[in-house]
Amino acid sequence: MAEEAAVVTAEKSWVRIVTGQTPTNIAVIKYWGKRDENLILPINDSISVTLDPNHLCTTTTVAVSPAFDKDRMWLNGKEISLAGDRFQNCLREIRKRATDVEEEEKGIKIAKKDWENLHVHIASYNNFPTAAGLASSAAGLACLVFSLARLMNVKEDQGQLSAIARQGSGSACRSLYGGFVKWIMGKSEDGSDSFAVQVTDEKHWDDLVILIAVVSSQQKETSSTSGMRESVETSLLLKHRAQEIVPKRILQMEEAIKNKDFPSFARLTCADSNQFHATCLDTTPPIFYMNDTSHKIISIVEKWNRAETTPQVAYTFDAGPNAVLIARDRKAATQLLQRMLYYFPPGADADLNSFVVGDKSILQDAG
Ligand code: DP6
């Protein structure tokens, strides 16, 4: 979603403002490990589902004005530094592609060459806990790139924008599309063939209901970035996973999604989450993202699925203890909620903090 506005001030100065909104995405075949840290090039393809923007999303307002003397950014109301390479890489790549903007009635005329000397202010809000393993960087960096591209009238398509968002945070490249999305790892050294593509759109397989069981909204101890660096350096299981397991799983997962084959989808999703956490344990020193409550959720779902003739729910955990539970339909989602409330009764010292429920959905673009 993007809204554009401009304010003309008395001193013939002006402000051009764009607001964008981007949902987060949850990987069902995980990205874990980079072959190039600076360009953010992964060691395997990954597949994710983009969530409903009403529940887990970032809203970013970007503004440009000749009155601004430097680039600045605020996250959830607090100013943060833009000095890091990741922000700078995204800003540079978007600025490079900026084109002319003319809004006669508002007195705004920006030529392509002017963008080099103009500064931006960025205000970003997450409607969910930051860095708690709920893929906040995915929504955040995707939204930053999307909104800046609108502000600077960048003409690139979503695939090219996804390659820019990738340089902000790997998983961000998948949030530029709705539905199921694949990040193709690419083979080139410059990263030109490492970008996201849509596998199926947001209308495909809309029976699925996604619930997030928030076990903890605390910031994780080991960030994804440093965790995957340590795994690449020390885990033999990760090498085997990237080279032997994931290439086959990606093909099977694409088939399962296209055919709406829930049993295969659930089997692959759970197996991939478990293998990702096994590579974390295989890292030296070992990384623990899940906790006892996460393990209890896995047991509950596994037992339930085995008791039915066909699986009802898939689980997946990113770099944190929170469970993402994908129910095959609304009936299974209702039963899942009932079971969760039974095993984790709400109360002052409850193991589960809350649930977020939502359909999978699309990045909305009103622009
Ligand atoms: C476990 O995209 O946060 O969520 O590229 O270093 O910013 P950087 O890492 P990030 O890693 C996400 C890892 C994951 C799996 C996934 O989303 O595929």
From TrEMBL:
Q: Domain of life, per the record?
A: Eukaryota
Give the UniProt entry's GO cellular component terms: cytosol; peroxisome
Reactions it catalyzes: (R)-5-diphosphomevalonate + ATP = isopentenyl diphosphate + ADP + phosphate + CO2
Question: Looking at the keywords, is Glycosyltransferase present?
Answer: no
Please state every residue range assigned to the domain named Mvd1 C-terminal: 210-367
Q: Name one GO molecular function term.
A: ATP binding
> How would you classify this enzyme at the top EC level?
lyase
Q: Where in the cell is it found?
A: Peroxisome
Q: Which Pfam family, any one of them, does this sequence belong to?
A: MVD-like_N
For this protein, the Enzyme Commission number is 4.1.1.33
* InterPro entries linked to this entry: GHMP_kinase_C_sf (IPR036554), Mev_decarb (IPR005935), Mev_diP_decarb (IPR029765), MVD-like_N (IPR053859), Mvd1_C (IPR041431), Ribosomal_Su5_D2-typ_SF (IPR020568), Ribsml_uS5_D2-typ_fold_subgr (IPR014721)
**Residue ranges of the Diphosphomevalonate decarboxylase-like N-terminal domain?**
23-196
Q: What is its main location?
A: other
Q: Which family does it belong to?
A: Belongs to the diphosphomevalonate decarboxylase family.
- What is the protein's given name? Diphosphomevalonate decarboxylase
Whose protein is this, by species?
Spinacia oleracea
